[in-house]
């Protein structure tokens, strides 16, 4: 019996080994398969070398090599194929002419000699005239080149994996293709003390595995101003505890806002919550950093905009409620700094 038992467990160990080997093979195969798919279906960065052409256009790709005998391959999301002379693809020396471009003729064209890969070009279908595929939105925290412009893009007609890049064409800027939290930071040369005479021109390009779209967005810096959020620096309480209690609030302009502040005045808005019914109220004031909020309140926050341009509002500051709590804990004291 013992022998037999041993024998069975040997067999099941063997079976197990075989199953494990199969599993490993399957996992490897799946990984490899996924890697292949991923390599092509995600264009995370703009292809380093690409050509664009409109639908139905003919485009000639040239293999940069000194070899005389070359062959071409095309790699798209699903396949790698050798290119043979056909009515769509005409071979002539180092040139390959693609006739009547459509999605199915896009992809990575590589040329090969008997010593290996010689050159490659990614061919994309230019759909810029077919649709407004995306929009660019930019804001600037200040009037000068001390801060970069922040731009974001929203797709209208684009789906799937898309590589995207932006540049400031007016100032001959470099392409920026790495966003930070979805925002592209573009340098520019605008000066806050002189009249801006020429509009900024922002060019955006998007590429999917098959297609390319370009959009331009042009504006004066002054039209996209959105200050950074201001900060509540001091609150102090007058007539504390009485019916006509007043909270005095002092606001610090955003640190990126240009100086002198008298020359670049801000308009402020405070939103506050009334203690007894939780209702939210707002007050606005212009061209000074201090104002008073009447009554007993639980929290408040502030935002600002350029007073002369009536720019976009900044984001709201964080809600401040610490100062209201301190009122109760430190009795008679009537001035303190918010945290
Ligand atoms: C196109 O193929 C070449 C050669 O294999 C490769 O170096 C390049 O990264 C490919 N381009 C894209 C965008 O996949
Ligand atoms: C673009 O800007 C407009 C206002 O100028 C704003 O309403 C919209 O939410 C912005 N879109 C994005 C994606 O930032
Ligand atoms: C806001 O004020 C607090 C305290 O005064 C300070 O620590 C913080 O850095 C300020 N934040 C900004 C954005 O200025």
From TrEMBL:
Top-level taxon of origin: Eukaryota
Alphabetized UniProt keyword annotations: Disulfide bond, Glycoprotein, Immunoglobulin domain, Membrane, Signal, Transmembrane, Transmembrane helix
InterPro entries reported in the protein's UniProt record: FN3_sf (IPR036116), Ig-like_dom_sf (IPR036179), Ig-like_fold (IPR013783), IL-12 (IPR050676), IL-12_beta (IPR015528)
Statement: the UniProt record of this protein carries the keyword Lyase: no
UniProt keyword Disulfide bond present: yes
Spans through the membrane: 25-46
PANTHER family according to UniProt: INTERLEUKIN-12 SUBUNIT BETA, INTERLEUKIN-12 SUBUNIT BETA-RELATED
Name by which UniProt lists this protein: Si:dkey-88e18.2
Species in which this protein is naturally found: Cyprinus carpio carpio
